[in-house]
Design a protein that fits this description.
Blueprint: E1 27-33, E2 38-44, E3 51-53, E4 59-60, E5 67-70, E6 76-81, E7 88-94, E8 100-108, E9 116-121, E10 127-132, E11 137-143, E12 149-151, E13 157-158, E14 163-168, E15 174-179, E16 186-193, E17 196-204, E18 210-215, E19 221-226, E20 231-237, E21 247-249, E22 255-256, E23 263-268, E24 274-279, E25 284-291, E26 294-297, E27 306-308, E28 313-318, E29 324-329, E30 335-342, E31 345-352, E32 360-364
Antiparallel strand pairs: 1-2, 1-32, 2-3, 2-4, 5-6, 6-7, 7-8, 9-10, 10-11, 11-12, 11-13, 14-15, 15-16, 16-17, 18-19, 19-20, 20-21, 20-22, 23-24, 24-25, 25-26, 25-27, 28-29, 29-30, 30-31
Length: 365
């Protein structure tokens, strides 16, 4: 990942919406800064998208902190620390004002897991899944009182390849893990029973370097951004008559568009109506409406269904309200950009310098 100093900190657009009207509850935005071993924290005005850094931020965390995930209760934040002499997960409690307080000791994936780089959590907040890229494993923790982590029996689970990304179905019953292979990438599907993983399917991603994964809110479709191809593959999950966890490409997949380069991150809005794609190589975010699972390009955008960003957009996070999209960029203008969202279209609002390259962004409502 690029680790470049930020030189750009300025406001670039008028405030969207009305400050002082509508919702009065603050939202909170957290971003991982691995080069600084820190988490930066902002208070988000839900009516304008304006971010104000929280007192005490940025917070120190483990070496190389790279991935964040929020507990659905809104009380806990977890951070993966893959750095030297770490190999562990930090737990932070979240105060009502968004302030973070780390709770020790950190939960280790060692000795059988190494380099924990990716985190996902089930919607119930019962289990945390950790992709260990150094040991080709998935460590699984149950989440107890106070957010405390305990590895489940059999963890870590061998998957046979270095994981690139992970995605859970909304029910939490299936976990999909992507990895590189030759000539195409791999998508492995695992059934989940009380946190225990069992391999149920293996599928070509129909493209190279499957970095981005997203699953629609119904758990019917899996979307894969193949960074090296570049294309987006679309699969039906567990199609009728097929075994649990099987993937089947839909007609029209993979979606090819060589105009926009190196799609690296995907996120779907909470209604399943729009798919956002960060194109690292062309410095924009393309947006698609969803029709019967198939993405259809928007035509009402600044550059033919893609919205210009700072260099190397690599991280996407939607505000739970659906009103804002936050983009983490890794180029010379590295930082966080805020966009207003209207019918899938993105309106650039602000740019925030964070001092280092953000690799994970989460938003708490």
């Amino acid at each position: 990942m690029l680790q470049k100093a930020l030189v750009l900190v300025f406001v670039v657009a008028s405030i969207a919406g009305c400050i002082g009207c509508g919702s009065t509850a603050n939202h909170y935005v957290y971003a991982a800064l691995p080069a600084a071993n820190q988490i930066i924290a902002y208070r988000e005005d839900p009516n304008s998208g304006v971010l104000t850094e929280i007192a005490g931020s940025p917070y120190s965390v483990g070496d190389g902190v790279v991935s964040l995930v929020l507990h659905p209760s809104g009380k806990y934040l977890y951070a993966a620390n893959p750095g030297q002499n770490e190999n562990d997960i930090s737990l932070f409690t979240i105060d009502t004002d968004g302030v973070l307080t780390e709770q020790f000791p950190r939960a280790s994936v060692a000795p059988n897991g190494t380099l924990p780089r990716l985190l996902v959590m089930d919607a119930a907040g019962a289990f945390l899944y950790v992709a260990d890229v150094g040991s080709d494993t998935i460590s699984v923790f149950s989440i107890g009182t106070g957010g405390v982590l305990t590895q489940v029996t059999g963890s870590p689970f061998q998957i046979g390849f270095p994981p690139i990304n992970m995605a859970l179905t909304p029910s939490g019953s299936l976990l999909y893990v992507s990895g590189s292979s030759t000539p195409d990438g791999l998508i492995a599907g695992f059934s989940v029973n009380a946190g225990v993983l069992e391999l149920v399917s293996t599928q070509s991603s129909d493209g190279t370097i499957p970095n981005g994964l997203a699953i629609d809110p119904t758990g019917t479709y899996l979307y894969v951004a193949n960074t090296g191809s570049p294309n987006i593959s679309i699969f039906t999950i567990s199609p009728p008559g097929e075994p649990l966890g099987t993937l089947q490409q839909v007609t029209g997949s993979p979606l090819e568009d060589t105009t926009y380069l190196n799609p690296i991150a995907l996120t779907m809005d909470s209604t399943g109506s729009y798919l956002y794609v960060a194109n690292q190589g062309s410095s924009n975010v393309s947006v698609y409406s969803i029709t019967n699972g198939l993405p259809v390009a928007l035509t009402t955008s600044t550059s033919t269904f893609a919205f210009t960003t700072e260099g190397d957009p690599s991280v996407l996070a939607e505000d739970p309200s659906g009103k804002y999209l936050f983009v983490g960029n890794q180029g010379s203008g590295a930082g966080i950009q805020a966009f207003g969202v209207n019918g899938g279209n993105l309106n650039p609002l602000y740019k925030y310098g964070v001092g280092n390259t953000p690799t994970s962004i989460v938003v708490l409502q």
